[in-house]
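The following block was generated as part of the benchmark described in Methods. Ligand: flavin-adenine dinucleotide.
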Amino acid sequence: MTELPATALLETHDVTNQPEAAGDRDLWTDDIVLRLLAGRDGKDSALAAYGATLGQRETREAARNAERHTPELRPFDQAGRRLDEVIFHPDYHRFMATSVAAGYHSVAWEHDAGGHVAHAAMVYLASQVEPGHCCPLTMTYAAQPVISKTEGLCDDWSALALSREYDPAAKPANMKSGVTLGMAMTEKQGGSDVRANSTAAERDGDTWRLTGHKWFCSAPMSDGFLTLARTGSGLTCFLVPRWLDGERNGIRIQRLKEKLGNRSNASAEIEYHGALAYRVGEDGAGVRTIVEMVHHTRLDTAIAPAGLMRAALREAFHWVSNRLAFQKRLIDQPLMRTVLADLALDWQGALTLGMHVARSFDGHTPEDRAFARIGVALAKYLNNKLCPMVVGEAMEVLGGMGYV
Ligand SMILES: Cc1cc2nc3c(=O)[nH]c(=O)nc-3n(C[C@H](O)[C@H](O)[C@H](O)COP(=O)(O)OP(=O)(O)OC[C@H]3O[C@@H](n4cnc5c(N)ncnc54)[C@H](O)[C@@H]3O)c2cc1C
């Protein structure tokens, strides 16, 4: 059925000079800067398809649903038995399925050349539409270099975390077609200073049992968490499966955070009650092991703000192209053009920096690795400091509607 237009001729006035909502957009074709920076042989078609899907009006509507209907904690079933599950809006699952199928979490590890650049381009595209679901997929991408080096894990976590199938069921990894991974480091007494972690690990045959709390644990429906806990040798990294064969692992979700942003995605406070865990990396080398995952999450947090800036700028551009003030389209007002030009420079700079760093993640020389290590921290810092200012200014361009 064709959608009927809203009624603009009202009893007291006609609605004029209010820009129509934008129709379908193509986030890849419309973005010449991205195409110049990411365009490489063979893999462009996947990025083009992803950008076109994300830009559809219907997809953007779905993103609003996922953001408006925030996740809900189900600690118990009706009878008071523990569930510790989080229910997400169906549109959140839809984004997870789309991005997993596109290879957001896996493309970096599937190609020798240019995989991280393709991954960064996907982070940038997805952040423009529904940044919430990026969190679990970024962590799944970032856990790969850690779990792929770990021998002796019960299931093939590395292969499952590369799967292009999204399987949100509450089932153990060996019964799933694909898994996602999270990380649990931060405790109440210290986040930056993770060496203050108090979660304890005790040996239980070939496995371990963890007891303690984690104050921030995003994407709590992930299938496993890379976790820091203390053994007799010091802080050690573990993989804690969310579900076991025939039972739930001892992971209790205490509550979900009431967050300022990233609302479609859940962030939880959790407790481990003798949770079964597998050691990852050397005993006592927990920080050295998990920092590899942290390093890769930084790439995504460096590039995502460029996506947020791009989205804000696009809305501003749409508005000024379709709104008149003082007998001229706003985009033809000289001062407005200056403002938009400044914003465009900020966005392009952020995107160029992020993609430049992504390229160093694809490099194989010691210089590439050294640059990736320091460059990603600086890019994360610079782009995230810049982002709120650019978005705020872009909102001002919309006048009062920017505030609304
Ligand atoms: C939305 C969200 C999701 C999150 N998800 C996860 C997750 O999934 N897993 C997880 O483990 N954690 C997660 N975190 C936690 C995050 O990693 C921590 O909040 C972060 O590491 C900071 O730790 P903190 O909050 O304890 O702050 P603190 O470490 O107490 O820092 C407070 C302030 O002091 C500054 N500071 C710290 N040390 C120094 C120093 N030496 N010199 C000068 N200044 C310093 C910091 O920069 C900061 O400004 C999440 C956080 C948020 C907001």
